[in-house]
Design brief:
- Helix content is 42%, strand content 21%.
- The chain has one domain: Response regulator (Rossmann fold), CATH 3.40.50.
- The protein is an alpha/beta fold and 126 residues long.
- The longest helix is centred in the last third of the chain and has 15 residues.
Amino acid sequence: MSDALVVLVVDDEALVADIVESALREAGFEVVVTVTGEEALAILEKRSVTIRGMVTDVNLGKGMTGFDLGHRARELQPELPVLYMTGDSAHEWSSQGVPNSVVIPKPFVTAQIVTALSSLLNITGA
């Protein structure tokens, strides 16, 4: 996985995480899936694998939100491409999301996730 484009997917809904993971794998990405923001941060802090992009749900149940996670992740990796998914919080993205990120409203077509993430990766040169 060291040279691969590894994407961290964070979603507390297993079905959504599975759909996103499958779409990203089909597009050629390696994928690491977590359920909570805290788990995602542990992976980013550990640095045992280089995460090149992150796709996170905004509402992750108990604990930190996807917006919180995006900010903490950017503290660790300032250029990390962040893509937010949300069913009801898209209106909050402009004020709470990290700069140079993208929000995809649910329901979405998986091609939207792949295209948006690929665009972010191209912009940052990952």
